[in-house]
Amino acid sequence: xxxxxxxxxxxxxxxxxxxxxxxxxxxxxxxxxxxxxxxxxxxxxxxxxxxxxxxxxxxxxxxxxxxxxxxxxxxxxxxx
Length: 80
Known about the structure:
alpha+beta
């Protein structure tokens, strides 16, 4: 997981409950915990997709979407 360079403090508001949380991006401990939670969520999502026999495409929101899509469909075509 790679987090872009952020300001040391970022206020985040929960969509469901409206609660505000200060995300301390300057803290190594906070970033480590966030990375761990993100990896756990990714693993859970991969397992759900595997069980449903659905392919996952790795794409980054700050990068061009075309390259991972092309790679996915090329790999899929070569498996036929």
